[in-house]
Amino acid sequence: MKKIGLIGILFLFFCVNIAFADEIDDCIKNYPGNQDPCITLIQKKVFELNNAIVPLQKESVGIRSKISSAKSQIVSMENQMILLTKRLIDKEADMEVQRILMGERVRRYYINSKKYTPIMIFLSSGESSGLLRQYTLFQAVISQDKNTVSNYILDLKNLELNKAKVLVEKNKIAVIKKDMETRFGFLAGEIKKAEAYKAVLSAKQRELEAQRFASLNLPTSLGAGPLMCTDDRKIDPGFGSGFAFFTFGIPHHVGLNQYGAFGRANVGQNYKDIINAYYNGVSIEKKPNITIKVKGYGSMSLENYLLGIYEVPSSWPMEALKAQVLAARSYALSYTNNGAKEICTTQACQVYKGGNKGGGWEQAVKATEGEVVTKNGQPITAWFASTAGAYTYTSGDIGWKSTDWTKRTRDTNGDINSFDDLFKKAYDKDSPCFYAAQGFRKEYNKSAWLKPSEVADVVNVILLAQKDSSVQNHLCYKNDSAHGCTDTWDFERVKTELRNRGGSPFNLINSVNISDWNKNEGRVNTISFSGDAGGASFAGATFKSYFNIRAPANISIVGPLYNVEKR
Q1: For 334-339, which contacts have Cβ atoms below 8 Å and span 24 or more sequence positions?
Q2: What pTM did the predictor assign?
Q3: At 16, is the pLDDT very low, low, confident or very high (cuts 50, 70, 90)?
Q4: What topology is assigned to 2-214 in CATH?
């Protein structure tokens, strides 16, 4: 019954899959300028799907354990078979030796039995006592030999019997193993389907979050204009104590880190070192100067096109400029499919303003003429962004198509043990967006500071969602006109609903701490809170996701690594 129930849960999910896809599409149409309600809807479905997957995973773990136990038993039996077979061979060899010895003994016995008969002992009065002793000894030897042969025969029979028993047990266990593997294979298949569906939902959520981040007008690269990140630690929001959530870097964290290249060049790395730091297993090859089509500018040679790229300042170190040239040249070739497709002129592709930028940039273009970053002989889509925040990720990590030339990089000059180390050792630490709180509210001096009660509200929302996934559509930011959620619950209503479900809501948060983070990959593992209701801890990704639908205005956490500042 348990198995049927679990499979039934998954069956229902797959039956409503198409309907839910339509539901998302309807949500996007109904709220064209606002992604929060759609993100909330997806989070609800992901939460429910997790509840379906977890018991299946637990059962599959149990089956894995049983299969492992069965395999161990089979290995044990096979080892016993090897031992018993060896003993059988050894004893058969012993028996062959005994057979030869016994043959000689039997021959002597036959001769002696004719020579030392009871009649001869009776007639030989002078030697009768000696002959009797010899005859008695000979009979004892024969009796011992007979017992030895009988014991070996019995041992051989026992060995054959044990061998047969082991084979029977081995066959039984093999049947059990096959049955469990069949069951596990089925469950694993169902889990895989559920995980795939969950991945689709997560990808959709990332897409909608990306649209929300777009409202922040964060430049992807330096070519889109000066970075306007501000340090909210220097801003007084006009209220007392509060918290601000600072993200390391800005999206998208994939490929060449422009400010990272700047930092690497300043410590003496050349452009090839820089390229290999950000792209995995690539080569640098010479390619011909083909003609490409540029939107709004017509056709031109690739090298002339590069002269008009405005992605980094010409005043930057030459090796950083060369690295950017190689990335731009490779991106153009890959994006246009070697000139077959037109390339745009904004940061959606790479920023082109026409003409010749001149200065150090022109020198870098000419010094690296024709040099392209390739993988297996083909130009790569050499993505780049202004500020990775000390960590780059693969394209698959952020929901793009997986590629084998992007990689996770800890972009630091030395080991990292703390956030303080990042501020000192990150190659892109000079970027104004290296560490910044994103979003703001005009009424609080255009800052991203939150009051202790507002942080408590986000915590309560997560606690309530964990208690009851059906309330997800009520949990986005309380301002309906700004966020469009259906029947949105405010701070007091969330507390009441949480209390009704046996939870203990917070009124105020006193402290927030990033209690655990991955220093090699740059991700928050656990974030902890304490306040008037005690303590609470959440996975870093979970808190980030709920924060981005509940925090007021457009205040957001825009990356997997973030920290908390208190005033």
Answers
A1: 334/378, 334/379, 334/380, 334/381, 334/382, 335/381, 336/292, 336/293, 338/290, 338/379, 339/290, 339/291, 339/292, 339/293, 339/302
A2: 0.67
A3: very low
A4: Helix Hairpins (1.10.287)
